[in-house]
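Allow me, if you will, to draw on your knowledge of protein folds for a short while. Thank you for your consideration; the sequence and its tokens are set out here:
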Amino acid sequence: MGKDTKGFFRRKWFLRIISLILALFLFMYVNGSKSGFLRQNTRNNNQSSALMSNKSVTLRMPLDVTIDNNKYIVSGYPQYVKVKVTGPSALATTTSNTQNFKVYADLSDLTPGKHRVKLKTSGLNSELTSKIEPQYINVNIQPRKTITMKVTIRLSTRDLDNGYKLGRPHSDIQTVQVTGSRDEVNKVNRIIAFVAIPHDAKDNIARQVTLQAIDRNGQTLNVVISPTTTNVSIPISAGSQSSSSSDSSSSSSEESEETKSSSRTSSRNDSSDSSSETSQSSSSISNEDSSSNSRNQ
């Protein structure tokens, strides 16, 4: 029986069947691994394509102006500009989130006056391209000037409706520094602290007021004032109307007392006069009686 079993495993058809089964298993295994590899490659290729595709983002960036701020004042340029950044999607997204570059105008070699300047970028990745809007700006460069001026307090009204009176206003800052372009600073006529006074105010007023630089026509000028605010205090007291009312009432009472006193004096004089007349009449009567008696005798 053992010889028959060994002969069975040694027969050619049995070995062929075993070989076929092993071949099928090997084929299925190779195909499965290849499909998985292809799927992985496809996924990786898609991700790489997504990362390498171009993307455009538009950013609002602050504009830097390069100039010696101790000598010059620049006006006329916008505070922000738009920048369209284009490049690989990952880089464009990162740049949009971090904004790790700047847009600037180099004015360091320019003289005072009006100029047209091209804007540039700095710190942008070399794989990215940018387009600035606007590409050019107009600037006005003027020599810087600083002066010292006295603070003037201006009140909205000098008269109150309730008879109260405004006292002399006081500012805790007497002088300020005014800085700007030479042309603009030369136009400054006054530095004012404007205080609005309620018409029915009865108590002292204390306000923190923003200072303004104005020209001879009352127009506000574009200059820098340091410090920018001041504390203003205004005393308020009872006006002349109240005191005049009390004076008139006291005068009336005094006149009344004088009138009563005069009446009492007049009545006393009248009564004394009538007594005198009565005594005189009695005397004359007695004299007449005496003379009559003497004649009869």
